[in-house]
Amino acid sequence: MYAAFRSIGAYVPTKILSNADLEVMVDTTDEWITKRTGIKERHIADENETTSDMGAKAAELAIERSGLDKNQIDMLICATISPDYFCMPSTATILATKLGLNKVTAFDISAACTGFVYALSIAKAFIESGMKKNILIVGAEKLSAITDYSDRGTCILFGDGAGAALISATENKAEAIIDIHTGSDGAYADLLMTPNGGSGSVHDELDREKAGCFMKMKGNETFKVAVRTLTNDVIEILEQNSISSSAIKHFVPHQANYRIIKAVGDALNLADEQVVLTVAKYGNTSGASIPMAINDIYESGRLQEGDLMLLDAFGGGLTWGSALVPFAGKTL
Ligand SMILES: CC(C)(COP(=O)(O)OP(=O)(O)OC[C@H]1O[C@@H](n2cnc3c(N)ncnc32)[C@H](O)[C@@H]1OP(=O)(O)O)[C@@H](O)C(=O)NCCC(=O)NCCS
Q1: Which contacts qualify for 206-214: CB closer than 8 Å, 24 or more apart?
Q2: Is the CB–ligand 1 distance for residue 116 below 6 Å?
Q3: Could you say which DSSP state residue 295 is in?
Q4: In what order do the strands lie in the sheet with 105-109?
Q5: Which of 42, 223, 230, 320 has most ligand 1 atoms within 8 Å of its beta carbon, as the pocket-test mutant?
Q6: Full-prediction pTM beyond 0.85?
Q7: Distance (Å, rounded) from C-alpha 321 to C-alpha 289?
Q8: What are the domain boundaries of the chain?
Q9: Closest alpha carbon to 165 in 281, 29, 325
Q10: What is the pLDDT of residues 48-99, one digit of tens each?
């Protein structure tokens, strides 16, 4: 049995936070943000809108577009670093109930911006082992809830949103997800973290900023490790599968920073039309960014049945991953 990437869906909150808005909030400029990151705006969830609310909307679309009866879904994995509740219940179980999926295996995974690629690899393994048949994977983030809007080094980067995909068993090898690489290096844990609130720290502060619940990032060091790791990773997965970069129809990288994407794309000699870019309008939505980007090319009619996608992500942990995925769904 093989695992096929059957459908995609996404949800983007309506409220927009532009670079001009941020100019009023912190000491920055539209010019600086655009030049250093490629981001022009990001979408921000309503105060009462949760990660699972956004994930459910993305998932409903993915289920509808798969043509599958939702009762046949037997597992739900949610990739998020901004769960509805800090420790429990998982966002996946809340999502399952919102979607009317009864008694499915449901759990969250924590791999930051690489979360969707990690979830995809878990789905592939469960399907290939024969344990599950139809797995809904969701990347959903309300990063605005863990962003410090007085820290110009991070608040210009992050946005909210969700994406979802249905991964199903198939006997047709031509439809199969070809390969997925995932890795991590906890030696770099301090480059990008929420320093407090877990068992690794003690605090009795109620103030979220003081309590260290907001993201902290060593941006410049993260940038360098990201370019190096991602470049090596995509070259390796292509070489190991004897696939040339010209065979990639859509390179769908995690949308953290235009300069990182450009550096990796150039290392692979990719033409502009092969590279999917949404960073300008959504910013960095962590685990949601890759499915949101896939949804963009799907809804714009660029993603056709059989197209080969190269996914590529990097995030806190540090974690990274890449995947060679033919689109096995119906063209919109
Ligand atoms: C965050 C990031 C955009 C910063 O860009 P950079 O080119 O590395 O910039 P630096 O951090 O070296 O800072 C350069 C200068 O700009 C300043 N600066 C930082 N943020 C700023 C902002 N929003 N507006 C204006 N100036 C800013 C810094 O204070 C520094 O000033 P100094 O030279 O006087 O000390 C970039 O490092 C990045 O994208 N990193 C990786 C992000 C990422 O991939 N995240 C995790 C994976 S998901």
Answers
A1: 209/148, 209/150, 213/146, 214/146, 214/147, 214/148, 214/151, 214/154
A2: no
A3: H
A4: 2-11, 160-170, 134-142, 75-79, 105-109
A5: 223
A6: yes
A7: 14
A8: 1-332
A9: 325
A10: 999 999 999 999 999 999 999 999 999 999 999 999 998 889 999 999 999 9
- Residue 48 designated active-site: no
| 91-94 contacts at long range (C-beta below 8 A, 24 or more positions apart) | 91/51, 91/52, 91/55, 91/140, 92/138, 94/50, 94/52
What value, to the nearest 5°, has the Cα angle with vertex 216 and ends 110 and 262? 75
User: Which residue of the set 78, 113, 155, 213 is catalytic?
Assistant: 113
Residue 113 annotated as catalytic: yes
CATH of 1-332, one of 3.40.47.10, 3.30.1340.30, 3.40.50.300, 3.20.20.70: 3.40.47.10
Return the amino acid letter for 126.
Answer: F
- Between the two ends of the chain, the Cα-to-Cα distance in Å is 26
